[in-house]
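Lecture notes, part 5. Sequence design as translation. It can be helpful to think of inverse folding as translation between two languages: the language of shapes and the language of residues. The source text, in structure tokens, appears below.
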């Protein structure tokens, strides 16, 4: 399974290198703007970094499900699925490869982001930023460590959601491949199933747990914990369903 993970990461290394290059370029623009005190330059670079962080992780997730879809259609995928390990481990290796690669990118991104935030605060003495953070996040002592701790919680919750999205993607592709086999239109059917599953998940979760409300970010996270656990359970169930169909239903 470890070898399979390494193979999945290697086959996507060019995409990862490209994302790192874009991140470093945006950080270079930000640094130049800060050193030259060009507020427009570093402000635009911050917007770019924020967008890139979301888009980058989303790209990794979409790319992971897209590769699974391609593997079901091509001979290279046939060789992957015919390896002497269970389909559960093959699909698990794909999922873990996405997690590990995106985690490395996210750690780099968050680390750079935290450094940039405190650089701006230090350079421009934005003291009014501290009361805002205390009010929104419920942080009594505004420090780098305190903000980093909240960042860790956000990452954990984010990865649970990422697990749901990828697992639902695997399940949608597996369902389409099972229902249509060698017929055309599997991609469109998989997309429709995927959207339908996400809408259904949101509807059921809303009915069961309601809206996540709270006076602070911490209170909101605590209120949303049952829903997050429900999403995690659904993601795990979707993964096992996809692996079962790959093992027993899909004609490779």
């Amino acid at each position: 399974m470890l070898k399979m993970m390494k193979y999945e990461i290697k086959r996507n290394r060019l995409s990862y290198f490209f994302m790192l290059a874009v991140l470093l370029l945006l950080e270079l623009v930000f640094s130049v703007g800060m050193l030259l005190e060009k507020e427009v330059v570093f402000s635009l670079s911050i917007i770019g970094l924020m967008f890139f962080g979301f888009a980058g992780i989303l790209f990794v997730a979409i790319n992971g499900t897209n590769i699974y879809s391609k593997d079901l259609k091509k001979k290279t995928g046939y060789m992957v699925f015919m390896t002497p390990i269970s389909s559960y481990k093959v699909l698990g290796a794909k999922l873990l490869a996405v997690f590990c690669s995106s985690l490395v990118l996210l750690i780099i991104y968050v680390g750079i982001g935290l450094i940039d935030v405190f650089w701006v605060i230090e350079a421009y003495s934005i003291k009014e930023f501290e009361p805002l953070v205390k009010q929104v996040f419920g942080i009594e002592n505004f420090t780098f460590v305190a903000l980093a701790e909240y960042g860790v919680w956000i990452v954990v919750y984010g990865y649970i959601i990422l697990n749901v999205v990828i697992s639902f993607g695997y399940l949608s592709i597996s369902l389409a491949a099972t229902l249509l086999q060698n017929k055309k239109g599997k991609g469109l059917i998989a997309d429709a199933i995927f959207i339908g599953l996400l809408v259904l998940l949101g509807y059921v979760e809303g009915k069961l747990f309601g809206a996540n409300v709270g006076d602070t970010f911490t209170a909101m996270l605590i209120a949303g914990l049952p829903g997050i656990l429900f999403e995690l359970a659904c993601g795990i169930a979707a993964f096992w369903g996809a692996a079962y169909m790959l093992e027993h239903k899909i004609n490779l």
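The translated text above is only one of many valid answers, since several sequences can fold into similar shapes. The mean pLDDT is 76.
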